[in-house]
Amino acid sequence: MTQLLKDSYGRAIRDLRVSLTDRCNFRCFYCLPHGEPPIAPKEQMLSYEEIEYVCDIFVSLGIEKIRLTGGEPMMRRDIETIIEKLAALKPSLHDLALTTNGYFLPDRAQGLKEAGLDRITISLDSLKQDVFRRMTGVNVLDRVLEGISSAKRARLDPIKINAVIVRGHNDDEVADFAAFAREHDVKMRFIEFMPLDSGHEWSRRDVVSGREIFQKINERFPLIPLNGARGSETSARYRFADGASGEIGIIAPVTEPFCGACSRIRLTADGQIRTCLFSTIEHSLRDVVRSRATRAEIIEFIESVVMKKEARHYINDPDFRPPSRTMSFIGG
Length: 332
Ligand code: SAM
Ligand code: SF4
Prior knowledge:
By secondary structure, the protein is α/β, with parallel strands linked by helices. It has a single domain, classed as Aldolase class I (TIM Barrel), CATH 3.20.20. Helix content is 30%, strand content 17%. It has a twelve-stranded mixed β-sheet. Strand 1, helix 1 and strand 2 form a beta-alpha-beta unit. Helix 2 packs parallel to helix 3 and helix 3 packs parallel to helix 5. The longest helix has 13 residues.
């Protein structure tokens, strides 16, 4: 019988995000505007064997979904091996997904599928060349669009597309993204800008609320809710009222926090457990694993860390301080 991971508020933890690297080949201004911080020595990073070992333990504790992220996870050369090892944890593991900026997909989407990846989420912040370049720091919109096509051809369905909507940058493209979802039959996910940028330049003024995003889409393409009671899902999901293909999801952690139903924990590339995106403390699973702890001791450690999961994030409190490690370290 699977033991279930539960926190002190009774929330079941079923979803693990694993960051494979802090490195990235993009410079998204809302994430890594000033380039990569000094890269930690390789020996501090979890090896693929360690990732496989701890994920096996997490799955035995009831984790059903694993999402690989980063940094840019495809910068890790052994990503196909990692996927192959984690895919062997199915069927107890229900869902193995990857979030990527899409740059490496044109050549490698098929290989990811063959290694056992179920689903993919690709970030795409603009459909305009100049805005894409300004937001990501690289002029590769066409290549990312080609990556999306390759992922479709490789049947990494359902394909999700993430766009972080930032005032004055891409808020005029919200309805165009909805048109893109209809045309390409993808699940578009609109994300509110969160204070997780390494430049610490986030300002509430730059946040486009989930409500505003909904209105912009609904005016052009009327929407019908899909998940009224959405449980632990991060996004409020909608379909198009006219029956067109594609789906809309709006993720509004700033203006409509969903912490009460959170089922997620995170593992950083250097093996630290984070119980919330906004945690100010981390717990070194790597040190425990490397201390030759037994499997039972590792389980005990994980259970005790999960009990410390925060009730909620504090973005909207007057004395909120962003975490010192930012999105590219934590794993989005
Ligand atoms: N490099 C991959 C990518 O960009 O898809 C995976 C890692 S990235 C940190 C994961 C997701 O976090 C991306 O969709 C990205 O747009 C989102 N993200 C990064 N910084 C963010 C911020 N400050 N607010 C909201 N979302 C953010
Ligand atoms: Fe890199 Fe992803 Fe952060 Fe952009 S959002 S800088 S692609 S890690």
